[in-house]
Specification:
single chain, about 400 residues, alpha+beta, Diaminopimelate Epimerase, Chain A, domain 1, 2 domains, twelve-stranded mixed sheet, about 15% helix, about 35% strand
């Protein structure tokens, strides 16, 4: 018995992993920090990801390469048996070499096109189910920032409680302000890429159901179909007037149908990125007495919907309030004159957690005063993440029948 056994009343079994998992030249060994932000999980890969070709200098270029040539890593990490439907993954890369040169002062303008070209820090590529690689994700970014800080990859400021740094997402540089204390990143504040509205009040017809839904289409890092429940509570869709987690399956089924119909009937693309949509949907439940607070449920794809196969009308709900969804909703509210620069907007998730959003300023997408420029906002999101595990994900390629995962329709 040890002198102090108060912290040693646990199992302590010696083990050794089989050498074949590590000895081969092409062994897959991915070192991950798993976190959750407001309930939604994210896996942060810090070591073991093969480097894309040297000409993939930006996070956007790395995203494209991984989608087309390295998607087996996404499937490995978030499909069963190593993942599950709501899992997300972030592949972290060192700054590009040589670094992207600064923009000469005489070439700069005040719009946000330059944000993507400024010298970055670490880069990351975000990957989700159904081969979706978002340009930006708020909850994933909060998890990445927390993992980097709490593992010492990015040092915490020891003299103040504030640590500032920049990460490069495919959408562009994302400035992070972390409030840290005693080795814990207590909150992460991220300045997102510009968010904007493409359409307000479009009428989407849902095949099969022969029903219509009024939607807004906005970009907040992904393309969102925004549906206000208060406009549809008596329409017969079965959505109800409130977001009840006990009705999640129905919200997923109807939400995925609305999103796909919206994408087919009102296709959109980002004016500066090759990023089409809609690729995600948010149901809104506005507060009856507080315009600065609302509840939401974000419907994320986990399958390829086929209108001739009702069994494919499936999806899952984001457990967090969704960072980019909050940005898209704030863009809609601002376009309607219901949310103003500097006001804090509290967004609640399906499980009761919260993110706090703020519109920092108004801006434009595209060249100012050009015919195709769009009014936009620069949003900020505040939230927190928590480390849940550290793991080394391996593939026993000699024996494992599922080296890149699988799906079964009971939960997918």
């Amino acid at each position: 018995m040890l002198e102090d056994d108060s912290n040693n009343n646990t199992t302590d079994i010696f083990f050794r992993l089989p050498p074949r998992l590590f000895d081969r030249k092409n062994a897959t060994i991915l070192e991950c920090i798993d976190c959750h932000a407001a309930g939604e999980p994210a896996r942060v890969v810090l070591a073991g990801t093969p480097l894309p070709p040297q000409d993939c200098q930006t996070a956007l270029a790395k995203r494209s390469y991984m989608m087309n040539h390295m998607d087996h890593l996404r499937r490995l990490l978030i499909l069963e048996p190593r993942g599950y439907p709501c899992q997300n993954v972030n592949f972290v890369f060192p700054p590009p070499t040589p670094p992207t040169p600064p923009i000469p002062e005489n070439n700069k303008n005040k719009n946000n096109n330059d944000r993507r070209r400024q010298p970055p820090s670490l880069q990351y590529v975000i990957a989700e189910q159904n081969k979706i690689y978002p340009a930006m994700s708020g909850h994933n970014t909060i998890c990445v920032a927390t993992a980097l800080l709490e593992t010492g990859v990015i040092p915490m400021n020891e003299t103040t409680t504030t640590t500032n740094f920049t990460l490069e997402a495919p959408a562009g540089p994302i400035h992070i302000t972390a409030h840290c204390q005693d080795g814990k990143a207590k909150s992460i504040v991220l300045k997102n890429a510009p968010s904007f509205v493409e359409h307000l009040d479009v009428v989407v017809t849902i095949p099969i159901l022969n029903q219509t839904v009024v939607c807004d289409i906005a970009y907040g890092g992904m393309w969102y179909c925004v549906v206000d429940l208060s406009k549809h509570e008596n329409q017969g869709l079965g959505l109800g007037s409130s977001l009840d987690p006990n009705r999640a399956s129905e919200l997923c089924r109807i939400g995925e149908m609305i999103k796909v119909a919206c994408r087919e009937q009102f296709p959109v693309n980002h004016p500066e990125l090759d990023y089409p949509g809609c690729d995600i949907l948010v149901f809104r439940e506005p507060s009856n007495n507080n315009r600065l607070k609302a509840k939401n449920a974000v419907v994320m794809s986990n399958n390829e919907l086929d209108w001739d196969r009702p069994e494919t009308f499936t999806a899952m709900l984001d457990r967090s309030p969704c960072g980019t969804g909050t940005c898209a909703v704030m863009a809609v509210l601002h376009a309607r004159g219901e949310l103003h620069v500097g006001e804090e907007f509290i967004h609640e998730s399906i499980v009761g957690t919260e993110f706090v959003g703020t519109i920092l300023e108004e801006t434009t997408i595209g060249e100012p005063n050009a015919d195709d420029s769009k009014p936009a906002i620069v949003p900020q999101i505040r939230g927190s993440a928590y480390i849940t595990q550290y793991s080394r994900v391996v593939v026993d390629s000699e024996y494992d029948p599922f080296p890149t995962g699988y799906r079964v329709g009971d939960i997918w």
